[in-house]
Amino acid sequence: MTVPVIETESLSRSFGPVRAVDGPTFQVYEGEVFGLLGPNGAGKTTTVRLLNGVLRPSGGRARVLGLDPVQDGCRLRQQTGVLTETPSLYERLTARENLSLFGALYGIPETKLSRRVARMLEEFGLADRADGRVGEFSKGMKQRLALARALLHEPPLLFLDEPTAGLDPEAARQVTEMIARLSRKEGRAVFLCTHNLTEAQRLCDRVAVMGRVWFPPAPWWPLMLWVAPAVAALGVAATVLISTRVRTFMEAYQMSASLVVLVLALMAGQITGVLYLSPPTALAVGLALWLVDGILIGLGVRTSRREALLSTNQA
Questions:
Q1: How far is CA 230 from CA 56, 137, 256, 260, 286, in A?
Q2: Among the listed residues 173, 128, 125, the one whose alpha carbon sits nearest the alpha carbon of residue 148
Q3: Sign of CA pseudo-dihedral 51, 57, 61, 67
Q4: pLDDT tens for residues 250-271?
């Protein structure tokens, strides 16, 4: 294993505030099955799309079969095979018609296409159903046909995204045996996305583990909008303390204390990444908190002055 067919460095992709792929760095070599493990939503499918040039990365770089997926996406996809979790087949067409159609799209010469289609149908155990409509196939048969389609143009690199998801044990076993044969006997590189640890242990030479999707911290300037209400509360309370008496300060502080705690909690959520608010939302929240804080302190001061006035009149 000396020639890398896939090489990534700090590859990342964000969708708005969501970091779907967070900087993985790895290499995949000829003739190995490389497993990308992770729970649903960890970014496995997004990584496959990045490596095939379907999506543009937000950061980092990748080289696949010596090509840049961003600049040479069309050339790259001619040399890779992709099997998704849900096989995308034309169900009104027969198995033979499906493979013939995709073979023509891959640019396989007509003189070779019919023989290659027949060979693939035979290898994947579909020769006896070659002229049956795909809509009448079981899920396992559709998955085998989709795998045959991905291999029809004999790509050196195969991407398999949850290839056994939803299959019964027998169909899953057939698919995993085919994957093992492709790598061990034919020397193809296989990039396998899965969350099935047993499947990964059985098939993969090496694995990489992706974590769950995390939200990045918001910019620092919205945090200042949340600091402002807390500072305003303490500032007004201090002014009341100086101009009147301690009781007024305590009343004002008690009324705004819960709001100060809320502000601090929101700040902590932003800093740790547990909570994310976009800058416009943070602006609206900050202004609303500032307004409510001013109203509460104003009520406290007004009440204190009213009590002081009543005490003076009674005296």
A1: 42, 65, 8, 5, 10
A2: 125
A3: positive
A4: 555 555 555 555 665 655 555 5
